[in-house]
Design a protein that fits this description.
196 residues, mainly alpha, globular, disordered N terminus
């Protein structure tokens, strides 16, 4: 069998075998984001479930940093759930621009470090994958702290993630991130209206 034909068969088999797991992960991911927009602590539970499924999916599709990212999401999901549950009222607030400059600078430095390691290992799109992973952790941290500007990070990250998942033929996940993009825009508007 020609090499190209084997690769096509493997892609189809992998996509087919992961389809149902991806569908479940997408469902939990959508529930997570809807409840985050509505500022409901139960969101974090669904985020944890989605991360568990995606941890396996990304491992099987060789997206190293996306797999590691799910481990961070599991930790941040527990932290977010604990933080949000102990608050009587969840009121979004803003950070000064200087704090965002610091977060972005740290994120870029970590991205360059991790991307160079992946580049040496020969992973496809190492800096792109590292950028998304690093900034998703940072954006999730901002979400746990109920910082309004987390939505600006998510709008950009959802666009970039759509490109990454399309490239890796995770089309349901690409659709999830399109829905996340729309919900992020709605979340930004909703949180701005309800901030102090």
């Amino acid at each position: 069998m020609p090499v190209g034909e084997t690769k096509v068969k493997n892609i189809f088999y992998t996509s087919k075998s992961l389809f149902y797991l991806e569908l479940i992960a997408v469902f939990f991911g959508l529930l997570y984001l809807v409840f985050i927009v509505l500022k409901k602590p139960i969101a974090w539970f669904f985020g944890i479930l989605s991360s568990l499924f995606y941890l396996y999916i990304f491992y099987k599709t060789n997206l190293f940093f996306q797999s590691i990212l799910q481990l961070f999401y599991l930790f941040l999901g527990c932290y977010g759930w604990w933080t949000w549950k102990k608050q009587h009222q969840i009121i979004p607030r803003s950070w000064r621009i200087s704090r965002h400059v610091l977060v972005i600078s740290i994120g870029i430095a970590i991205t360059l470090l991790l991307g160079s390691e992946l580049y040496i290992d020969g992973q496809e799109m190492p800096y792109f994958d590292a950028f998304i992973a690093v900034f998703c952790v940072l954006a999730t941290y901002l979400t746990t702290k109920i910082i309004i500007e987390n939505w600006y990070y998510w709008i950009l990250l959802n666009l970039l993630s759509m490109i990454l998942f399309h490239y890796n033929q995770l089309y349901l996940t690409e659709l999830l991130f399109f829905a996340n993009l729309l919900l992020s825009i709605f979340g930004l508007i909703h949180w701005k209206k309800t901030s102090d």
